[in-house]
Amino acid sequence: AKGEYNGNRSYLRFVTSSASLARMFGDLNVREIGAAELEQFKTFRRTAGIKEVTIRHDLHSLSVFFQFAMRMKWTDANPVREIEMPSDADAVRDKV
Length: 96
Prior knowledge:
Elements: H1 2-5, H2 9-25, H3 35-47, H4 52-71
Helix pairs in contact: 2-3, 2-4
């Protein structure tokens, strides 16, 4: 992500999302992460009081990682595609 998005907000989103993702999946091999583990991640984040839109952003970042992992032949699938994404309806968008 650093080489691809360095210096913009997407890179900062990846860095932020990576912290919670690493806490949940840090000990797992990429191939061990499936839809069930992602559902557990959503529950873990919700019980920590994290907003749905933040969980959505975390999962989108993870999806980009899985796309990279597939190109590198680390895995054969992107399990993020198999789950329902949390809503972004509670997101606040202030335009100046």
